[in-house]
Amino acid sequence: MIHLESLTKQYPTKTLFSEASAHLRPETRVGLVGRNGTGKTTLLRMIVGEDSPDDGAIRKRPWLRIGYLPQELDTPTDLTVLQAAHRGQYPEHEAKRILSGLGFGEADWHRSLETCSGGYRMRVALGHLLLANPDVLLLDEPTNHLDKATQAWFESFLLASKMTMLVISHDTKFLDRLTTHIWEIRNHQIQEYRGNYRTFQTLRARIDAQQATAAQRQAKEVARVQKFVDRFRYKATKAKQVQSRIKQLEKIKLLETRRDSKRLRFRFPQPAKSGIRVLELHNVRKQYDDNVVYEGLHFAIDCGQRVALVGENGAGKSTLLKMLAGVLPFEAGKRREGHGVTLHYFAQHQAEILNPEHTILESLTEAAPQAETNYLRSTAGVFLFSGPDQKKPIKALSGGERNRVALARMLVEPANTLLLDEPTNHLDPASVDVLTDALIDFQGTIVFISHDPVFLSRVSTRVVEIEEGRVKDYLGDYEYYLWKRAQELEALKAEEEALARSQQRKTRRTPPPADAPVPSKKPTRRDMTKTINRLEKQVARSEEDITALEERIKARGEELSAPALYRDFPKWNELHQEHERWKEELDVLTNRWSALSTELADLKQQLAQVG
């Protein structure tokens, strides 16, 4: 469908592609991977004609319809959600079906795009693409703004479609479930692998190991030959042999081994310590138009905590973080900042405020004008910008590179409190590891939002769940939060089972005399509505628990498949047994969800009949 023939693309300070070739075949789902800055987004832009190669050709099948979702959108805000999705070109009922799958309710269809967040505008654009059903779908980080339920629907939609896909994503689990092939951009070439992301990782690790072994053998041989040359360079009787070996060394093309950027480490500057109470919101009311997000909110953060804010999209996580940062006003209540608190706030779209004409080094200098140049260069280096790369202009960077610059700008001057909204978006796995390690070592206070379960598990020491304007504390890490939620579900299940047994015992009592009137009290509409509301919350909570447990099971399955673990059978067996217990727990949770859903549907039907 699309042939890439000997593409070359260069910038003054960097070469992205050098005679790179690849073929995108019909009905394949290809994951495009590579380190940040290797040219993934540039390749998509060249395919759709927004950029062009310096040399080579891109050949496409005639009349090929291509749909492209970039990382950053220029969406017309004068349209409603529904209008932007179907543009008058497609059936309205299909647009509504797809918008519903992407998390929009009926009340959102006629909502102005101007009132939507950047994440929801991205969902509208995605809905328009899916509705268009192009021959080829090019997606650049499509899951960054999707919650788990919406992403599950999105994956199912893609898997059921016949579209050919080329997808950039740092969500390796998403790639693992979706892809049939992987294209890796490496050494200015495009290497193709058949299979999903996990298969690619296995093959890539094998190839890297073979190359490392070959490079070691080559290095030993070069050292042996060089030793002979050095020893006999000035000995006349060995002149012929020396010249022969010098020519031998000149012909050798040294093998390169892959540098593992995960080995890089960054430590935050240690700022002055703050007081015990860092931030506090007291009796806060926040609303957008008629939508009251928080009413009478009390919330506090203490020194040294690493607090993860979790909850469904739209629950108010970003709103809470902005109020803590002091960048969003509220209608009532007070915000208190503790003694000695200095803070940095990183928003989801922080990279958008960078001056596109500045170089990376100039951008860091702007953020910390008093800092020494060597310190700024060192900071840029640990965020994977080294040497000539530091002179690249911001406008030439990929979305992931811009995010790294924005993070580096925030960190070149010390602060004891970090407020981070989705800091890992657009970062490749190696960069996420560098940031995660640095946050774990940080001695200050962190409040953050993330959809990355691994990042949540490693960084958090306290989890705060936000639901319907209320906050619920879990004083432990993310794994504790998931376990506690499962325990709460079990306790609720036991309570309801006890209530059911009690009701059964009542029905077994001696029946009243035949002539006694039979009491019959039908539940009122109010009673039924209350029960429905309770059941809807329980169903939603069950779905969240199931999703969380499925993620743990999936992650453990990947861990168990690691070849290195096979050599440690006791450890493998221990993890395997826990994996099996989680599967049993999943069955219990699924059965519980099924029973609650059936009860809810029956009750809704009864309420409809009451009229």
Q: How would you describe this protein?
A:
This protein has 611 residues and is α/β, with parallel strands linked by helices. The protein is 46% helix and 19% strand. The strands form 4 sheets. It has a 6-stranded mixed sheet with strand order 5-6-7-3-8-9, sandwiched between helices. Strands 14-15-16-12-17-18 form a 6-stranded mixed sheet, with helices on both faces. Helix 3 (92-101) packs across helix 4, helix 10 (360-367) runs parallel beside helix 12 (399-411) and helix 16 (525-560) packs antiparallel against helix 18 (569-610). It starts with a strand and ends with a helix. The model has no long low-confidence stretch (mean pLDDT 82).
Q: Give the strand tally.
A: 18
Output the strand order for the largest sheet.
Answer: 5-6-7-3-8-9
Query: So what's the overall shape?
Result: globular
Distance between the termini: 57 Å
Q: Unreliable runs, pLDDT <50, ≥5 residues?
A: none
Show the helix and strand layout.
Layout: E1 2-11, E2 14-24, E3 29-33, H1 40-48, E4 55-60, E5 66-69, H2 81-86, H3 92-101, H4 118-132, E6 136-140, H5 148-160, E7 164-168, H6 172-178, E8 181-186, E9 189-194, H7 197-232, H8 239-251, E10 277-288, E11 291-302, E12 306-310, H9 317-325, E13 332-337, E14 343-346, H10 360-367, H11 373-382, H12 399-411, E15 417-421, H13 429-441, E16 445-449, H14 453-459, E17 462-467, E18 470-474, H15 478-507, H16 525-560, H17 563-566, H18 569-610
Parallel strand pairs: 3-7, 3-8, 5-6, 6-7, 12-16, 12-17, 14-15, 15-16
Antiparallel strand pairs: 1-2, 1-4, 8-9, 10-11, 10-13, 17-18
Helix pairs in contact: 3-4, 7-8, 10-11, 10-12, 15-16, 16-18
